[in-house]
User: Which sequence fits this backbone?
């Protein structure tokens, strides 16, 4: 019996952007949740939303914070708000911190994490995500569009 081997195309970079209603009259946590949904860190309807609380803790922190401290702060926050303690394993906290690093929202300094360069999120989004990350993705998609036009006689 012949088995077909299917190649898995792994993207070099990806980002999902979503547009929601204006951020008015919502709690701080819901604001962070909508931000996570807006930049694709959280999927609509996803009940596993630990990344929201991790980003919330990172935004509240005035100094760099270790992954252990992030974990403790998230657990305390979820307990205080009577939320289920799902996704709080140390390995998951570190994985979510890495996701935040991958889209340039946070950075690792020695063994601690902080908001990238202690900057405002709008600066991070404009300089790192919009101008660099998103632009590089759009440029590569254009290369595929141009090459496809050439090969299918539309050039």
Assistant:
């Amino acid at each position: 019996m012949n088995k077909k081997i299917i190649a898995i195309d792994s993207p070099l970079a990806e980002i999902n952007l979503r547009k929601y209603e204006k951020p008015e009259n919502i709690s701080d946590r819901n604001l962070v949740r909508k931000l996570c949904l807006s930049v694709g860190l959280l999927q609509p309807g996803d009940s596993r939303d630990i990344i929201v609380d991790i980003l919330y803790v990172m935004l509240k922190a005035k100094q760099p914070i270790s992954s252990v401290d992030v974990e403790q702060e998230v657990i305390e926050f979820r307990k205080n708000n009577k939320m289920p303690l799902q996704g709080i394993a140390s390995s998951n906290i570190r994985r979510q911190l890495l996701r935040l690093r991958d889209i340039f929202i946070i950075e690792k300094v020695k063994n601690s994490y902080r908001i990238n360069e202690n900057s405002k999120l709008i600066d991070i989004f404009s300089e790192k995500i919009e101008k660099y990350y998103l632009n590089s993705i759009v440029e590569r998609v254009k290369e595929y569009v141009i090459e496809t036009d050439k090969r299918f006689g539309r050039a």
Summary: Residues 119-155 form one domain. The mean pLDDT is 93. The longest helix spans residues 121-151. The radius of gyration is 19 Å.
